[in-house]
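Practice problem 4.
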């Protein structure tokens, strides 16, 4: 790891750590940026962060994956996101999403640690066995023998001692780390670069999992690396039943930062987050249709259906009247108008339900992490 401590590792007095009281996201602000609202949910209820946040903020940022997606690409992605959606909430429009888009760095832990352990396991070595198989063939007029070479595995127990230092083992710094990988990720640590001045001027979300909590995710990765090293030391083709008794020491924690664009829209009392991977451009967001905007269409179509049905009944009632002497008999025409009015009322009644059905279909897929309740 780079031993030089970045500007994030020892926050200067003019730096600030703030917490959103609505969504509980915490941010480290460089001296050049002042947040007036939460980049995730838009709440203006930002307060100075307390508790373990200053401790998390003092861990060094070793490297950062830089933004490669341009503002123009972000704008185009957001325009595509809102296009084609009927009955969208009033706040869901392209310009609002673009105006609220913020560059944010998300953290992930990196840990270096030394490992000392005795180990044992079963090493498997491939070997070949030649055998012969006889079969009967009518075309060959009798029995024939065929040589078959099979690859088998010879298992042998192995044991030894491991003394290694493992560098840059990743561990989640956020509770949503797995979800982020599944939606807008994964991020490649291999793309990380040394922290630059431009990176220092970007808002960073602070970890909500401290190293003691994240260690449970890092240890299995170290075990897998150690198992692989032991297999290589045995020059085994296969490996199983690996067991060890590790002692870890000289732990050194730092952070790597990943770029995202963060914006949101309000769906009534709910703020819905839209994220864009700042490296690949992959977008994730939940589009919701508004039942409030669909109801007027349902009311209008339902009203027209009712009026058409009443008009049809009126036409049928008029057919029961005898036209005055000298007037043409228009009862057949009234029947035709009545039938068409009744049919129109049925069609309009069906159409009245379509806005509600559309909203239900759009909103039927639930989302867990991008919904922030008041």
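Answer key:
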């Amino acid at each position: 790891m780079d031993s030089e401590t970045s500007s994030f590792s020892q926050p200067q007095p003019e730096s600030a750590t703030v917490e959103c009281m609505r969504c509980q996201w915490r941010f480290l602000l460089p001296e050049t940026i002042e947040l007036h609202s939460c980049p995730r949910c838009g709440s203006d209820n930002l307060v100075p962060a307390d508790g373990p946040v200053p401790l998390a903020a003092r861990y060094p940022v070793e490297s950062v994956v830089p933004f490669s997606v341009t503002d123009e690409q972000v704008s185009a992605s957001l325009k595509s996101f809102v296009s084609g959606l009927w009955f969208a909430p009033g706040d869901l429009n392209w310009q609002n999403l673009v105006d609220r888009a913020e560059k944010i760095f998300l953290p992930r832990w990196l840990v270096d640690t030394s490992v000392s352990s005795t180990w044992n396991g079963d090493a498997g070595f491939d070997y070949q066995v030649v055998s012969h198989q006889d079969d009967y063939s009518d075309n060959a007029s009798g029995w024939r023998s065929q040589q078959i070479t099979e690859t088998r595995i010879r298992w042998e127990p192995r044991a030894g001692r491991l003394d290694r230092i493992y560098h840059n083992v990743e561990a989640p710094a956020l509770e949503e780390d797995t979800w982020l990988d599944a939606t807008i990720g994964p991020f490649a640590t291999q793309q990380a670069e040394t922290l630059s001045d431009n990176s220092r001027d970007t808002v960073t979300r602070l970890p909500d999992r401290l190293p003691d909590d994240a260690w449970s995710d890092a240890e299995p990765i170290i075990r897998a690396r150690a198992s692989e090293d032991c297999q290589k030391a045995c020059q085994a083709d296969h490996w199983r039943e690996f067991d060890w008794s590790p002692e870890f020491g000289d732990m050194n924690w730092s952070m790597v930062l990943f770029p995202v664009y963060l914006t949101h829209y309000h769906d009534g009392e709910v703020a819905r987050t839209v994220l864009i991977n700042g490296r690949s451009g992959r977008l994730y967001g939940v589009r919701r249709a508004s039942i409030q905007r669909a109801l007027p269409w349902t009311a209008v179509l339902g009203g027209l259906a009712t009026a058409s049905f009443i008009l049809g009944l009126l036409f049928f009632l008029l057919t029961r009247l005898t036209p005055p002497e000298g007037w043409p008999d228009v009862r057949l025409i009234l029947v035709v108008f009545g039938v068409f009015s009744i049919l129109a009322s049925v069609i309009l009644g069906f159409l009245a339900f379509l806005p509600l059905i559309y909203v239900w279909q759009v909103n039927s897929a639930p989302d867990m992490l991008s919904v922030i309740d008041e």
